[in-house]
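Q: Please design a sequence for this.
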């Protein structure tokens, strides 16, 4: 197709249409074929990837989404609570603030991990050589290896171990991502001379890869998952407010250094 025909082609959607008497999600009548008959995870998977998941797919996807839905007062949860305190009339503002933290360092690392695994899978030199080379490159650049390390969980992230076990039970997975993460894990341990855990986002990236989710869409699944957790944080903030406590704590514990006087003046001499 020429460039001119590409630019003049009329855009279209395959996601949804409606008439005066019906709504269709792709080819399914929402009222007759979907509501009360299919679950939320089933429908979101079908809408995003344009294929119906089977029971094994849904078991894996549900596990992946649940595993990264919540991890306590992390940056995304703190942001949600703080913004909700400032804008309690719009809970979506708090959720949106928290979702902006689903990036390359927290939660959104499922994408980073999957991109690395995909590179290892596709490497012409083979999985083992590619994994070894990747570890050497990250170490030389002094960068964290996507999908590895968890300061709260040692020696292994319990979520990752369970997720990968669930993935291995899927009878129709090709196993290429699962093999890549196993090989990469061995190379990481060998390079560092100690065991470094696969973390939850590394495991989630592995499972989503096996499900056929393109790496460029994986952060979207992380957003879907974490949004539910952030609504739970708002629900708890409504019952047990903590945002003001966090604000006061930071205000008093982060000292001021300068010529002015104030309640948080640094008098340590530093």
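A: Design:
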């Amino acid at each position: 197709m020429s460039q001119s025909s590409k630019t003049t082609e009329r855009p279209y959607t395959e996601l949804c249409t409606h008439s005066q008497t019906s709504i269709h999600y792709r080819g399914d009548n929402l009222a007759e074929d979907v509501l009360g008959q299919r679950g939320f995870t089933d429908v979101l998977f079908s809408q995003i990837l344009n294929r119906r998941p089977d029971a094994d797919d849904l078991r894996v996807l549900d596990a992946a989404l649940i595993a990264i839905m919540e991890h306590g007062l992390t940056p995304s949860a703190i942001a949600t609570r703080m913004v909700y305190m400032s804008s309690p009339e719009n809970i979506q503002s708090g959720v949106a603030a928290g979702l902006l933290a689903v990036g390359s360092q927290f939660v959104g690392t499922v994408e980073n991990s999957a991109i690395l695994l995909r590179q290892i899978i596709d490497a012409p030199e083979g999985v083992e050589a590619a994994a070894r080379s990747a570890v050497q490159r990250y170490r030389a650049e002094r960068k964290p290896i996507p999908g590895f390390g968890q300061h709260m969980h040692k020696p292994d992230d319990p979520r990752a171990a369970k997720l990968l076990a669930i993935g291995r039970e899927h009878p129709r997975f090709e196993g290429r991502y699962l093999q890549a993460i196993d090989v990469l894990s061995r190379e990481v341990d060998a390079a560092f001379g100690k065991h470094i855990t696969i973390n939850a986002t590394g495991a989630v990236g592995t499972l989503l890869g096996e499900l056929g989710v393109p790496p460029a869409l994986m952060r979207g699944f992380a957003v879907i998952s974490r949004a539910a957790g952030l609504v739970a944080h708002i629900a708890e903030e409504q019952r047990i407010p903590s945002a003001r406590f966090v604000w006061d704590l930071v205000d008093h514990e982060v000292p001021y250094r300068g010529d002015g006087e104030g309640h948080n003046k640094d008098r340590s001499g530093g």
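Q: Thanks. Anything notable?
A: Strands lie at 16-18, 23-25, 28-29. Residues 54-252 form a domain with the Cytochrome p450-Terp; domain 2 fold (CATH 1.10.230.10).
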